C-alpha cells in the first residue's frame, strides 16, 4: 500500500514507455464520430429482421452490414477500454468506457434476431443460396457454427423462457461471487516482516510463497477457518451451478454437461478425457517432484502450505525492460526473421504500455482488434517473472497480428481454446533458450528449471485436478447424488491425495479447497490451461529442435485465426489434440527437466 504513494501519475510517465493510442484514433473527437456512426446504424440493423431467409442477396447484405458495424464497434470499445485502463481515475475515460459497454449491449440486442432467423434456413436452401450468390461462401464457416447448434435449439417459447430466466439460472455463481468477494471477512495475519496484514485471496497467495514457514502455515490455517464456517452455503451455491449446467444440457439433448460446454467451442469430449487419463498415467512424476521438494526444503513433514515457496531462494535474476526485450528477441530468433521483425515493431512502435502508474489497471494483457495494433499492458518489474510475462503477451499479440493480417474480419480472431497456446509456446521457447544460455551456470539453471517445473505443476497437474473434480461432481449430480459439503470434502481430499502422493500430508483444510475456487463456476473452462500448456511444450520443442517446416506449420496456425475449428487449426501446427502424443511429449520434457533439476541438488 505504501508503494502507491511513490507511483508516478499518468502524465509523469515518459511517453516512449506508453502505448500509442493515437494510432487507433488521432483524438477523442474521432472516437466520438465512430461512436455516433455505430449508434446511428443500430436502428437500421434492427429493421433488417425478417429479411434474412428471403433470398441469397438479402442474407449477404444483412451479414455484411452486421459485420461492418461490429468491426467499427470493436474499435470504439478497445479505444475506450485501453484509455480507461491506463488511468482508471480519469472520469472522462470512465464515462467513455461505460458508454462503449452500453453500446455493445445495444448492438447485441439490435442483432439478436440474426441467429434464430438463420436457423430457419434449411441446409438445402443454403446450398441453393451459395449457388445463387457465391460471395456468401466467404461466410460459410460463420453460418455453419450456428447451424451446428440446430439439433440443440428448442422451440421458440422454451428458448424465450430460458433466455428470460438466465439471471435466475446463474444465481449460484452470483451468490458465490458476492460472498467470496464482498461478504466474507478474513482475519489479520503476520507477514515476513512481523507486520499485521489483512488476509485476502491475493494476500494469501503471496504469503503462501513466503520462505518463512510460520507465515505460510498461519495464512493457510486462517484462510480455511473462514471457508470452514461457510462450507455448507458454498456447497449449495456450487450445487446450484452444477444443476444449472446439467439441467440445460439435458433439455438441449446433450449427452452430458461436459459435452454441452465443450461443443460450444467445437471441442470433442475426447480431448478432455485424454487429458484426464494421460495426467493420471503420469502422476508418478508429480509425486517425484513433491518428494524432491520435501528433500530440498529439508522438512520432516511436507504440508500443503509448503507447495508454493520457492526452492531456489528469494532473489530473482534481475532484468530491466531493455534487457528483457533483448533476451526476448534473441530467444525468438528461432521463429524466423519475419516473426522477429513484427516483434521489433511491437517493441519500437509503442504497442506496449510498460510501467506502473497511479490508478493503472494491474496485471498484464494483450488486447486489440482487427483494425488496431495488438497492444500490451504491463506493470513492469525488473525480474524473471516479468520477462516471461513480456514474451507471453508478445505471443498473444503476434497471434493477433498474423490472424488479422491473413484473414478477413470474420475470421480475424481466434478461439479461447487455441489462444493460450501461442503465448505459452513463447514461454517454452524462452525456457529452452535460457537453459541453453546458462548451461554452465548451475545457479541460473536452477532458477529457470524451478520456474518451469512450478509452472508445469500449476498449469498441467493442478488444472487437470480441477477438471477432474468438475467432471466428477457434474456426473454425480446427474446420477442424483446430493452434493453436500461432506461429500465434496471427502472426494476432494481423496483427489488431492491421489495427485500429490504420499510425500505430502493432506492437511484436513485442503478438503475445503473446492469451496474457494471461482473457476468451478466457469463451466468446464480450466482444462484449456492444461491442454494449452502441454501443446505449447510440444510446439516449442518442435520449433527449437526441428527445422523450418515446423516453424512454417506453427505460423500457419497463427495465420489461420478462426477460419477453421480449433482442432483443425492446431492440426495445421502439427498437433492433433484428439490424440495423446502431445501430452506424452509434454511429460517427457517435464521428466527430463525434473531429472536435471534433481541433479543440481
Ligand atoms: Zn495469456
From TrEMBL:
EC number: 3.4.24.-
Domain Peptidase M3A/M3B catalytic residue range list: 207-588
InterPro entries to which the protein is assigned, alphabetical: OligopepF_N_dom, OligoPept_F_C, Pept_M3A_M3B, Pept_M3A_M3B_dom, Peptidase_M3B
Keyword Protease in annotation: yes
Keyword Lyase carried by entry: no
UniProt keyword list: Hydrolase, Metal-binding, Metalloprotease, Protease, Zinc
EC top class, as a word: hydrolase
Cofactor detail note: Binds 1 zinc ion.
Cofactor(s) listed in the protein's UniProt record: Zn(2+)
Oligopeptidase F N-terminal domain location: 117-186
Family designation: Belongs to the peptidase M3B family.
Free-text function comment from the UniProt entry: Has oligopeptidase activity and degrades a variety of small bioactive peptides.
Name the record gives this protein: Oligopeptidase F
Gene encoding the protein: pepF
